[in-house]
Amino acid sequence: MDAEDGDTRSLKLSVYPIVADKNWLTVDRSRQVLRGISLNQGDFEFRLEARDSANQMTSAAFRVSVDEVTPSNHLFIFDIQKSYQHLTKDPDTMLAFATKLAHSLGDRLPKNIVIRCV
């Protein structure tokens, strides 16, 4: 809770990887949750940063553990026009891709889509 700005909905929230060179997490501001698609399993460390209207900042470190993917009952292989770098440089791009893929397969939610490699 910020004295001037109130709860986290009034703050600018950002997430940054501590060790990795690519960030696959993003802040969903409307739902106040972190979302992302990791292409690797393992433990990943991040820092959540909150800034208020006076640009004062606080941060907290946290770890995300990505488990091995459970076997799936379908496998699709796609040839896409965008490069690997374009698709993976921004977490929101990968999430938008998963959402569009889910919709095209008749699923409303991308949580049922597992991306094993790009």
TrEMBL record:
SUPFAM superfamilies per the UniProt record, alphabetical: Cadherin-like
GO terms for cellular component: dystroglycan complex; sarcolemma
GO molecular function, one term: laminin binding
GO biological process: axon guidance; morphogenesis of an epithelium; nerve development
Every Peptidase S72 domain range: 71-118
InterPro entries (UniProt xref): Cadherin-like_sf (IPR015919), SEA_DG_dom (IPR030398)
PANTHER family: DYSTROGLYCAN 1 (PTHR21559:SF21), DYSTROGLYCAN-RELATED (PTHR21559)
The protein, known as: Dystroglycan (inferred by orthology to a human protein)
Organism: Anisakis simplex
Classification of source organism: Eukaryota, Metazoa, Ecdysozoa, Nematoda, Chromadorea
